Amino acid sequence: MSDDSAFRFRPKARILRLLGDELIGNQRLAIFELVKNAYDADAEEVVVTLAQLGTPSASITVRDDGDGMDEATIRDVWFVPGADHRGRQRREGRRTQRFSRLPLGEKGLGRFAVHKLGERIRLVTRAIGDPVERQVEIDWDKILGDGYLEDLQLQVGKREPVTFPGDSHGTEVVIEGLRQDEWTRGDLRRLYRQVTSICSPFAAEREFSVELKLPGREIDLEGLPTVGDILDKALWHYTFSLDEQGQFTWTYAFINRLVGVDLANRTVNGMLQPLQLDDQADEAAEEAMPRKQRRGKGRNRVVVDTDFLKGIGPLEGEFFVFDRDKEVLTRMSEPDLMTRYLNENGGIRVYRDAIRVYNYGERGDDWLGLDLRRVNQPTIRVSRNVVLAAINLSLEHSTDLVEKTNREGFVENDAYRRLRRIVLASLAALEAERQDDKDRLRQLLGKKEGIERFDASPPIEALRKEAKRIQVDEALEPFINRIEAEFDALKDTLVHAGFSGMGLAVVFHEIDRGVRELLAAFKSGGERSALERKAIDLSQLLDGFSTLLRRSGRKSMRASELIRQARDISVARFRYHQVTLHCPILENASQDFEAVMARELMVGALTNLIDNALYWLRVRWPDVSAGEPSARKIHIGTSLDLEGGPAIIVADNGPGFRDLPELLTKPFFTRRPDGMGLGLYYVKLAMELSGGTLQFPSAADVGLSDEYDGAIIALVFNNTKGGG
């Protein structure tokens, strides 16, 4: 005989109030949720009214002209917490009749937002074709008590249509006994911004509109600018589209709105091609891992494809970008209006089937980390307070993007992380083109370049943290301290010597790259001696910069020695990315030469070129099957055929360059989503400091075969042995 007993869950009736209280973050979100319910009901218009605020008779009314509910829907859906009515409708792809919508709701909890707002709720609804309208009243003070949910009964009344007379239909929810006693001017203005932002402000036509009424408090909304007032002040407009295959196209426009500035408008249309992704910062660490241990869909991909978009689907974006530079603002109308609006509303919002996913783009939300990524790249990166933007998703295709139960964004799963990478990658074209126009604008305004703020503390602290985690901090702390001290000393030297911000930017670029390599070595479990060697190399690089500032530190070195050192540094990466490397000079198949150069800088320059080649090869050849001949090829050799002197040649069969050489070597210009725009500028600077030049020859110029049809770069040394 068993002693086991069986019991049923018996929730208290108060759980309904708790659902509203605990699941919905604030009063504005609760109203937002009721408006979304109206959208799901196929409404065209919603009116939100806050009446008699500050009095015992205060109320909130949300009225729509949607499908309404009949008695069966009230009984089987509205009265059933967690009813899967909308979620099932979405999964089955059943769209609404009037506007062909898929429902936003999926958990059956949104209707409990009413309980966040007040103690007394009156629901009046009339379904299409129903001869009567139905009414439900809930007074929590009267019905809650200490009873159980199963014992709670509510009456559904029916009457001749009064609220929805004639052929009208829809639902009206009236909430009284408000939980929020006082609605300040700021509360109402924030509510207005939130309610009016439920639909994309950039959409030309809308099939869903929301109106906010504040009888007796209209003055609180006076002076609020519309988004149209602000968009007319944007200097840059950028749109993009990403299809289901990962093919990316974009349009960029610079619109000169500045008084007294003679600068032509400019429009660029990007050709259809795969969207390039950032090269994940910890990718190098994964090179040492077995492939089965690597996590995340497409983590090491650098282009978007169908698999990467699974559960996200196609998407579009529209950006209006502003300039808050003082010299620019003085040449614009109503600059204070623009800056105040951007302070409150700047950011990138997300819309799904044209309805906003809260709270992306709110003042306290930086879901893409725009402000952080701009800290050390202030010249090129956009921040939240200079952009008004919308990302548009398809509800039908974005099934893996699941909204949190508290209605504050998506669950931060793998699909969400991929979405972030996609949106950040889409900014690369905007930021590259915008940089060109910003430079033209600065030249006209006579603005001089200043010293940028580059802080090496975050990456160096990351090194310390990782060293402590793998318990090598005591051994490596002296090396890390030396790197930090030499960077600070070099920064002071640059500033006091009158060097431009570019010099410091280049140093920081190499610090950042070196730290990434060290972190990768830490995470892959490298030997302590190897870690120390990498730390010493980074320290010597900084020392190399210092000696060059004193015009010393240049020594004679053979090209083969330099190529061998750069190859050895990257040999594991060639193997991991399945790149066929051709170095004829290391096989005595081409002529060697000797030149005077700054060794540490030249090793860094050659490594920069290899880094670039590895990235762009993966853009052109994203899929390489194990065990098969790789399509990815890099050539590192020498040539004596160029004017100016012997050269080291780095060539690949990637997509090649699409920009002019003067733009490629321009500081902060990049088409890589994660690029600083300093790699080729650094190479150019290193060559100049070594008495040489950076050139971009053709394959025929340096005797290469047609298989190297991508980027070809020549490091030309004018100062060979015996020179100055």
Automatic annotation (TrEMBL):
Domain of life of the native organism: Bacteria
The keyword ATP-binding is annotated on this UniProt entry: yes
Reaction(s) this enzyme catalyzes, per UniProt: ATP + protein L-histidine = ADP + protein N-phospho-L-histidine
UniProt keyword Repressor present: no
One Pfam family cited in the UniProt record for this chain: HATPase_c_3
Stretches assigned to the Histidine kinase/HSP90-like ATPase domain: 597-721
Keywords tagged on the record: ATP-binding, Kinase, Nucleotide-binding, Transferase
EC number: 2.7.13.3
Molecular-function GO terms, alphabetical: ATP binding; protein histidine kinase activity
EC class (word): transferase
PANTHER family per UniProt: SENSOR PROTEIN CREC, SENSOR PROTEIN RSTB
UniProt name for this protein: histidine kinase
